[in-house]
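Newbie here. two chains, one complex. Structure please?
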Amino acid sequence: MINEVMAQVAANNSAIREMFEEGNRLRALFGPDKVFDFSLGNPYFPPPESVKTAVFEILNNMEPNAVHGYMANDGFPEVRRTVAEYINETFGDTLTGDDIIMTVGAAGGLNITLKALLNPGDEVLVSAPFFLEYGHYVRNYGGVLVPVPAKEEDGFMPDLEGIRNAITPKTKAFIINNPNNPTGVIYPASVIQGLAAVLEEKQKEFGTSIYLISDEPYRELAFDGEEVPYLPKFYRNTIVGYSWSKSLSLPGERIGYLAIPPRVDNYEALRGAASVSGRVLGFVNAPALFQLVVQRCIRESCDIAAYDRNRRLLYDGLTELGYSCAKPQGAFYLWLKSPVADEKEFVAETKKYNILLVPGTSFMCPGYVRVAYCVSPETIQGSMDGFAAMAKTYGLMKK
Amino acid sequence: MINEVMAQVAANNSAIREMFEEGNRLRALFGPDKVFDFSLGNPYFPPPESVKTAVFEILNNMEPNAVHGYMANDGFPEVRRTVAEYINETFGDTLTGDDIIMTVGAAGGLNITLKALLNPGDEVLVSAPFFLEYGHYVRNYGGVLVPVPAKEEDGFMPDLEGIRNAITPKTKAFIINNPNNPTGVIYPASVIQGLAAVLEEKQKEFGTSIYLISDEPYRELAFDGEEVPYLPKFYRNTIVGYSWSKSLSLPGERIGYLAIPPRVDNYEALRGAASVSGRVLGFVNAPALFQLVVQRCIRESCDIAAYDRNRRLLYDGLTELGYSCAKPQGAFYLWLKSPVADEKEFVAETKKYNILLVPGTSFMCPGYVRVAYCVSPETIQGSMDGFAAMAKTYGLMKK
């Protein structure tokens, strides 16, 4: 009776809900400090104080209608100009405010991009493991998501040969997420160069345009001095989607941007379509006050060093216990190899120690689990006894 | 190459853009106080002071992560509870917070509802004239919009006989907008009763569920003591979509709700599908801070009496000059009969007097124009010379 796809999604959603409820059940039973919940990507460290200062400054100095009223669907012109200037200064590009659309988070930006790009049957590639929502976003517009498995032995870098083989004349886009959720790895410039070469080769072969959609909510969460390449420098047909959810710890406020450089194929048509897509999908515009806030806080960030300390604490603790994982370089995720082939068995075992993790199957990559370390340092410390006990069980302890 | 539908929408969008640019051109040429722009539905009267007070109170007293962090996709439980209680007190319903989804404006709520409801080919009825975005929203999900013309002689009330004839076994929903954009009329209880009877008759005949989707951003803008019926009292399968864009003058903040009473057909499935639809479409959740703001300001409103004064000023002025219009009872629109058959000709004429109106064709109802009186009283007063001159031209002046 109701939409069949959404009814199915709702039914499958019960797994996530169950995990959430399981967490609540355990917290009620044992106390919140005795439950080690690594399942959610919800920032633990608060926004910088400058966010609050900016809100007060805006509300005290601007006319209320200029703050809260409608603006052009793409966003306040002065905010878009600031974003373009910031990108230009930081990455050496030459964008203008016209190339920026303020969006309802990165998820809003991705949906707008795919709505503007895809015709039914178009294919969108992604390297697996990946954030499963991409599949929904692509299917929203009649597209087909084509996951290409990354290789464990390559540290979960995109498999360029596999990607080359998967591209067809119907391939319209590749979604890349760097730093990566769920693996926490960063794709370096060399890998991006390789990917760009494959996409260019195939564009030429098929006479098509293949857009690289770069989903970058974790851009600033890069550690050990690793650089996150700015993709429009490597590949002409790049569209960047950004969100301040992580860098300013504002995930509930839904504020991000799309950058569409004027050198992408079909710029005029695509730019116009992206603009109306936001309206047609009911986003209308990005939340007004927080457009003005991010304009004022564009050089600010939450305490990123605190995430780095968490990362070391978790990584050092787990590897000392004999666990294996992908090298965690960015975002706030550690991608842990399950000590047993079926990682769901491992996740069930960790629950006995009040440790909540997400099985790799949820990212189309079984055998691994995601540990989200956007938690208090105490959560990480507190979990180590449980991880140690399981290391013993699974015979991981180093001799 | 890019999505064909969106490319077409973008091309058609040029008409709106042209009008906007024409306004800017005229303002630059003659000065902003010499241009009488009645084309936009952007609230003129500011939010109540309590909005600012609420923001300050929230930011000064709550933990930043509790304000700006992720919450369940449906919204903060305490906000949803407050909304349910407010609805119950005001309209005598028995909703709980579980029946409320906080949404990215009313447009977000409508898209979520249609995503959750429609299967490809499903039909959605609407009384014309109507807000043309409904057509986009329905087509987003493979639905077919079926407009049923209202009759001028019935004061633009829905044509119940026409609706009865238009309903088929594929009819999944009827979108109703009360008070109405663009006509400014209010559908009274008697009309709603008639509509409910038709929908119930057809549900029975076809063994289907037909949902009445009530789009209510103008609910509080009701004048002359007119009451806006609460539709779930009249028809069981009603879903209400609301927005604080107008009542609190916050259109840029994108904050609204969906109310799905538990007595609607397929409640469990529909409720679950609506919840995941918001996530899948990339809304994720309604902006966090403004959820907390509307919770605190749910009994507040902008200066509605000021809109009423505008309405009288405009209505009295135009009717004295001999113009005809639908009886303006609600929203902030006056639906003016064009003095010539082709209302686009009239709109071109009004431009000579720096008066900007929207032709009825933009609402699928030629022969009329929409005058949005969410403007300063001075704009209305200043426009009267132009309207008087045209009344002379068209021979409207009363003897």
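Moderator note: Chain B touches chain A through 74 residues (CB under 8 Å). Chain B has a mean pLDDT of 96. Thread marked as resolved.
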